[in-house]
Amino acid sequence: MASVLKIEHKCAAPPERVFALAADFANMTDHLTGVTKVEMLTGGPVAVGTRFRETRVMFGKEATEEMFVTAFEPPRSYTVEALSCGMHYKSILDFLPDSGGTRIVMTITATPQTVMTKITGPLMGFLMKGAMRKAMLQDFIDIGAAAEAQSTAGA
User: Fold this and answer.
1) Residue 140: closest CA among 108, 114, 99
2) Of these four, 55, 83, 115, 147, which has the most CB atoms within 10 Å of its CB?
3) What is the pLDDT of residues 29-41, one digit of tens each?
4) Over the range 109-146, which residues count as b (16 or more CB within 10 Å of their CB) and which as e?
5) Cα 74 to chain centroid, rounded
6) Rounded distance between C-alpha atoms, residue 91 and residue 84, angstroms
7) Does CATH number 3.20.20.140 belong to domain 3-153?
8) How far apart are CA 66 and CA 54, in angstroms?
9) In this structure, how many other beta carbons lie within 10 angstroms of the beta carbon of residue 57?
């Protein structure tokens, strides 16, 4: 059974600017404090099919995940997916205009793919939700701050 996590954050920058920063996977380490390394696996501009490896600290240890873009609709939305530890993760990010700023809405669906993850999935999902929520919310705070800084600098 799939587990779903929804995270929202509002910032004062326009959706186009927030989307551009959030979808700039190659330069994530410039504005996301939780990401320590990014390796682009495909060339060219970001589009459906773009693949990259993201390394971040989770539970005090570095964790690297390979992600791939499965939907890309600038400046409204994009979807990234990953297969990791017997789970399929699908993250849909929406960038919605909201009172002169942007409301970022992320919906993460984690679906067990193996017998073991189907058995342990509910417990692991419960444990991961808190850590994942905290990490993603910090990403949104970082992206919002960077986008707001660009707005005030006139970029």
Assistant:
1) 108
2) 147
3) 999 999 999 999 9
4) bbebeeeebeeebeebbeebbeebeebbbebbebbbbb
5) 15
6) 13
7) no
8) 6
9) 13
